[in-house]
Design goal:
alpha/beta; 11-stranded mixed sheet; two-stranded antiparallel ribbon; 13 helices; 15 strands; disordered N terminus; binds glutamine
């Protein structure tokens, strides 16, 4: 189906038909500043596309009232000079794990089905100050528990590339929506892959930031020592603009980092000469689907052409990643979810899904007397080994090239019905969070049956600028990220 509400834009005497939200944030913001486009037009297009597309993919949990969004858009249009951020007047989406004052926030769980928060997350405030316009709260695996957006109490999100398949998770709603150009960017949350996995499965770009780079204040906690708040968008360049707006220290989050926030957009064009990409060959063995392996390794040539050097290495200790991640992550979630006792927020514990109850029970078990030493403490030692393994790898290279998902998006039911396969699917994305490292997922190909494939570039702490620069320069010479689902 072709969308009917395309707009004719005049640009250097060229006339072409385009979906406004298919353009980059930089392009949109330039048109807005030149008054060749209004935020009202953008927001109107977003709501029209959502009306046509969302019933097919179920990406939203709560849609912001159109009149409210239009009122904000008019305000930005009328006071344009007051807004200096390139995000001013641009529609965006929040994963429903961020609290928003007076706007329902559910974390995709029936426990919080009717929860109206009394305050808003820092990331929301920063975007509000930038003049960005919130359009909706997006579907996800409840509490971040999952990688397919099937563990939601609001019906699964469908993959726009094939509606019988999952969109990934836990930030599946925002990813599917961006693939369909329902907004310009989104804020996801990544505890063990939740930004990168759905980005890779929907042909979009997502950045898991260094732990502490963006304030977690107002982010509903899954595993507090792993949780990160990050941008999801069509391109690395768009992610750079969003990250600049949301990063930085926050007095409300003691774990937010004091490091200055660079101008990530300016640094996109930095020279990559002399930088080295490490390829951990042991990650490209059994269990990785052949088309994914082939697609990723084919990109070596592209990276070399960008001036990057390649080096092969081994990271055998990463095989303990799943055990470390799931023991610590579930221990932390069992503690974090104890507050949902039905007295303070929402409904009682009977409303947790089977998957979430399983996670609380495993975490409680790992933390209980007699088992703590055997499980939790061992996992913390394993975490130290992961830190050392990455430190060691970074003595040979600047970034690491890894797969995001070992498989392409499965059909509904395949993951959720099989908890072990579900866990195995996270194998490449769970080792970075216990170490705190940033990682960028970018599109790099399609399977023979036209399902998106992504790769991830893992960097050293606070090296988001380098990851985004490599991602951007890669996207300047490749076209994968420009492909869109046929649904459009
Ligand atoms: N799929 C992983 C899990 O289920 C990661 C989730 C996340 O990053 N929130 O734990």
């Amino acid at each position: 189906m072709r969308l009917k509400h395309t707009t004719v834009i005049s640009w250097s005497s060229l006339y072409f038909e385009i979906m406004l939200l298919d353009q980059s944030i930089h392009q949109i913001s330039t048109l807005l500043r030149q008054k060749n486009l209004s935020s009202v037009e953008l927001v109107t297009e977003a709501y029209q596309t959502i009306k046509e597309i969302n019933p097919q993919i179920n990406a939203f949990i709560t849609l912001v009232e159109q009149n409210l969004a239009l009122k904000q858009a008019r305000n930005v249009d009328q006071n344009r000079v007051k807004f200096t951020s390139p995000l001013a007047g641009i529609p965006y989406l929040l994963k429903d794990s961020y609290v928003t004052q007076s706007l329902r926030t559910t974390a995709a769980s029936a426990v919080l089905q009717n929860f109206i928060p009394p305050y808003s997350a820092t990331v929301y405030h920063r975007l509000e100050d930038s003049g960005a316009i919130l359009i909706g709260k997006m579907n996800m695996d409840a509490w971040g528990h999952g990688g397919s957006t099937e563990n939601t109490d609001f019906k699964p999100t469908k993959n726009p590339y094939e509606l019988s398949r999952v969109a990934g998770g836990s930030s599946g709603g925002p990813a599917a929506a961006l693939a369909c150009r329902l907004a310009a960017f989104a804020i996801g949350e990544d505890t063990g892959g939740s930004i990168r996995n759905p980005a890779a499965w929907t042909n979009t770009t997502g950045l898991k930031v260094t732990y502490g780079r963006v304030s977690r204040y107002g982010c509903i906690a899954y595993a507090s020592s792993f949780d990160t708040v990050g941008p999801m968008a069509k391109t690395a360049a768009d992610c750079a603009l969003v990250l600049k707006a949301i990063a930085g220290q926050d007095p409300y989050d003691a774990t937010s980092a004091v490091q200055p926030v660079p101008d990530y957009y300016q640094k996109l064009t930095q020279s990559l000469k002399g930088k080295t990409i490490g390829i951990p060959t042991d990650l490209y063995g059994d269990g990785l689907d052949e088309p994914i392996k082939t697609a990723i390794l084919k990109q070596k040539k592209v990276f070399q052409a960008l001036g990057l050097k390649l080096v092969e290495l081994k990271m055998p200790l990463l095989r303990y990643g799943l055990a470390v991640y799931y023991l610590i992550g579930l221990s932390e979630t069992s503690s974090n979810l104890a507050r949902y006792d039905g007295l303070r927020f929402g409904q009682d514990r009977h409303f947790f899904t089977t998957e979430t109850m399983r996670r609380i029970m495993i975490g409680t078990y790992a933390l209980s007397a007699g088992y703590y030493d055997a499980y939790y403490r061992q996992a913390q030692k394993g975490r130290t080994l992961l830190i050392r393994e990455y430190d060691q790898a970074f003595t040979h290279c600047d970034v690491l090239l890894m797969p995001v998902n070992p498989i392409s998006p499965p059909k509904f039911g395949e993951l959720i019905a099989d908890p072990l396969t579900n866990i195995m699917a996270d194998i490449y994305t769970v080792t970075q969070n216990p170490v705190g490292l940033p990682s960028l997922a970018v599109p790099c190909g399609f399977t023979p049956n036209q399902l998106p494939i992504g790769l991830q570039l893992v960097g050293q702490l606070f090296a988001e600028d380098l990851l985004l620069a490599i991602g951007h320069q890669y996207q300047q010479v490749t076209t994968w990220h420009l492909q869109k689902p046929q649904l459009l």
